[in-house]
Amino acid sequence: MEQRAEVRPEIAEFFRQYDEAGTRADPSAAEYFASSFLTLDPEHVLTLDRATLAGILPGRRQAFDQLGVRGLRLTDLTEEPLDDRHTLARTTWSVDWSQPGPSTEVSATYVLRREDAGWQIVVYLNHHDVMTMLASRGQQPS
């Protein structure tokens, strides 16, 4: 992961752990989100709770498997503190495909909030319709 100097170590560590949980397709990845949070992409705006997200993650993993996606790997992270409790994190993720072919990158922006238990995601903005984008690449002949 490329990391620019302005990312605080605690934010880099948060995303390292979040990336690792996502790579393992660990349902505990939902724990990195606030009890309720806003999720957006080019087509949708939803408020979700952590329990709903935990229920969605296994289906997401199945969909990834069907498309030939082994996982996403964090490749770039920048941070812009907003105030004492909030920070904006911009990320780029590289798709790890099971078959060779064109590389795919996706980007997302997060707003994190510092709580007593540590940082939590309160806003999750995907800059792409990720499933459509992955399905498009996954259906191409290799």
Description:
The protein is of the alpha/beta class and 142 residues long. Helices cover 30% and strands 42% of the residues. It has a single domain (2-138), classed as Nuclear Transport Factor 2, Chain: A (Roll), CATH 3.10.450.50. The chain has helices at 9-23, 50-67, 130-138; strands at residues 2-3, 33-40, 45-49, 69-81, 86-97, 105-115, 118-126. A hairpin with a 7-residue loop joins strand 5 (86-97) and strand 6 (105-115). The longest helix has 18 residues, at 50-67. The protein is globular. It starts with a strand and ends with a helix. The model has no long low-confidence stretch (mean pLDDT 86).
Task: Outline the secondary-structure elements.
Layout: E1 2-3, H1 9-23, E2 33-40, E3 45-49, H2 50-67, E4 69-81, E5 86-97, E6 105-115, E7 118-126, H3 130-138
Parallel strand pairs: 1-4, 2-7
Antiparallel strand pairs: 2-3, 4-5, 5-6, 6-7
Record keyword descriptors for this entry.
single chain; 142 residues; Nuclear Transport Factor 2, Chain: A; 7-stranded mixed sheet; 3 helices; 30% helix
